[in-house]
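Worked problem 6 (solution included).
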Amino acid sequence: MKRLVFIVIAMLFFSYSNAQQTYTVNGESLELKTEIDGTLDLLWNIIDGQYRYFVRSEDGTITELKNTRGEDRKYLEEYKSVLASLTNNSISTEKLKLTLYDLRNFIDDYNSSKDSSYQSVTTKSDVLVRLGINAGITNNPFVENPNNDIAPLGVLELEVMERNVLQRHSGFLQVRHSFENGEFNYSTTELSLGYRYRIVNKETFSIYGQLKFATVNFSRAEVEVPQGPTTVTNEAKDTAFDAPMIFGVGAEIAVGDSGFITINYGELFAVFLDNQGNFSTDITLGYKFNL
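Solution. The predicted structure is:
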């Protein structure tokens, strides 16, 4: 039994010492973990509550990856120029973030390109998810609205696509809420599933068409009902599932590394819903970002 305990302790010690070693970098003694071992090595650790990242080249030189602030308080992104130099600009660093996930993928890609026998150690998700928040106005074009009243509109959206900068196809799950406007006593919360295709698709902007093919609406309205010589106002609630095939268009403008300003004309026309006589006014402005 004592022998078994000794073996377990020895294995744990070996595993720990193998995963974390002491290095001297610019006169500073640091205990670092080896995340990737290849043509370029990635070393890192949390030191004094701060993530610190290092790369080790084939000649054994260890260089810290930094992102300090200049006098104008803007980040200098020195790590990008360091990695660009070490990789001979073979992989773009333009959108590279100083995170363990991004650095691991970047160095893994470089090592794979330099050594055919290199075994990748990263697992990249093939799916990219974006969260969008929009606000705007709508005249609820598929609802009877005699005075063409405009109501405030809020939209929350999850968009899913392949992890590709220039991916054209995506699907989305959307939650919309059209508010009462004081004169038009109608409101609805809509859940919808849809498809989006980017007709113009650049890194900095895109223009797309979209189709909502399934919706569930939870609606509330005030309805005047004749009662004798007068009328009374009753509250009517309704839940409806439809496959309306609602078409819309939109655009995205890139902001920073992973954000987009969005403009959306969400309900232009529908195949299986009748427009109630008013030209559609359903426009939102918002922001979406990668999760």
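Discussion: Helices lie at 2-19, 78-86, 100-114.
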